[in-house]
Design brief:
This protein is an all-alpha fold and about 140 residues long. The chain is about 35% helix and about 5% strand. The protein is built from four helices and two strands, in the order H-H-E-E-H-H. A two-stranded antiparallel ribbon has the order 1-2. A hairpin with a 5-residue loop joins strand 1 and strand 2. Helix 2 crosses helix 3.
Length: about 140
């Protein structure tokens, strides 16, 4: 069966789920009728002033894309993606990422109650563990 399954009760623990972000992307696209790239531009990139960010691979500007390398330091070929992926495909710059952080620190265009909820503690994380323990 090809279904998303919970490995714990929601709110009981923290785990990252790229698959979960992809299901969320698909649900948001279905609900709004807009693609992920368009939604990102409308609600995040443009309001934050992020002029150099995209979920689509910039095949026309390969000289601006950081190279990929394997564990031995050998270059790995690019695997261009033609569809936005909420879990893995964000292409951005350090400058745009700084703009994103400032945008989010200032509420991200959300109402005050929603912005406060966004930064509120949702679950207590054991601070003695490394972030790698959660992957």
């Amino acid at each position: 069966e090809n279904r998303l399954r919970f490995i714990a009760e929601p709110g009981a623990t923290y785990n990252y789920s790229g698959e979960g972000f992809e299901w969320l992307r698909k649900a948001i696209e279905a609900k709004t009728g807009n693609g992920w790239e368009e939604l990102a531009k409308t609600h995040v990139f443009n309001p934050a002033g992020m002029v150099d960010s995209s979920f689509l691979f910039p095949s026309e500007n390969l000289d601006r894309v950081a190279g990929h390398y394997d564990a031995g330091g050998k270059p790995v070929d690019y695997e261009p993606h033609e569809q936005a992926n909420a879990a893995a495909n964000l292409m951005t710059t350090a400058e745009d990422y700084a703009r994103f952080v400032l945008f989010m620190m200032n509420g991200g265009g959300l109402s005050q109650p929603l912005a406060e909820e966004m930064v509120a503690e949702q679950i207590k994380i054991d601070e003695t563990k490394s972030f790698l323990d959660f992957l």
